[in-house]
């Protein structure tokens, strides 16, 4: 019988906070055609000709504010998830990053070295997007075909609306909510609007109204819809009225039109609308990272307070909480069992 294994895949991180390491990481990340989807020549001109001239130094300073003695928070947390999962499953568990090391290829190689020939690959993204789930699967398939043609890979699909995940996220948020708050803001990573249309093979997406319709064919590929459905399910589970919540999108890059509303602009303006006590959570991420610990916890807090806000409470990601490990285990075992059925 073929030996099975699990590969947990997250975004990735620079090797260190040194400017050159950050530059190397950003080059690989931003030159991915599913992140910046311009033709290669225009992408290279933008990334290597403009962005990498100034952004690495600024990003390096930001990374320094969140870096731990063990290294990058995202890598450290993903390793903790790996170790906890390994204790509750009876197959090898390794990690890989879409960008930088340990790479997807490194992760697969470690499993193969242990005799594994059937891999459950888990992209650690609740919602589907071209720049997250899709690029992980495409990269893994590229590596598999080139280096490991005899290996079979079974991919875990986005779990944004799975009841076990919603229960886990809702319980985690509810435990961490402050006693008094005016609004709970759900800040998801943003994507350019054109990505929504590009990832829709049904060609039925209309950002103006289809997200709120039931059973539109595009929903299984629509990042925006999935973010709203996650929010809707979580607040129903917590028991919060919709008017006490906000959905927004962060981390936009460049001058292209990204899905709205924007988190930074929202944080600056909501105090003028009477929101003085804010709780905020980032459910596009399962592990705390630069975008949550620095962009939201530090920059976001400053934006909110400068706008007139008083109390800002960031709710951490699921990270290595035991209840999240339980969800990861269940989702992985579902896919492991599919190998037995073939």
TrEMBL record:
Fe(2+) binds at residues 189, 291. One of its GO terms (cellular component) is cytoplasm. It comes from the Bacteria. It catalyses: Fe-coproporphyrin III + 2 H(+) = coproporphyrin III + Fe(2+); heme b + 2 H(+) = protoporphyrin IX + Fe(2+). It is found in: Cytoplasm. It holds the Pfam family Ferrochelatase. The keyword Metal-binding applies. Its EC number is 4.98.1.1. CDD domains: Ferrochelatase_C, Ferrochelatase_N. GO terms for biological process: heme biosynthetic process. GO terms for molecular function: ferrochelatase activity; metal ion binding. Catalyzes the ferrous insertion into protoporphyrin IX. Belongs to the ferrochelatase family. This is Ferrochelatase. The lineage of its organism: Bacteria, Pseudomonadati, Bacteroidota, Flavobacteriia, Flavobacteriales. The gene is hemH.
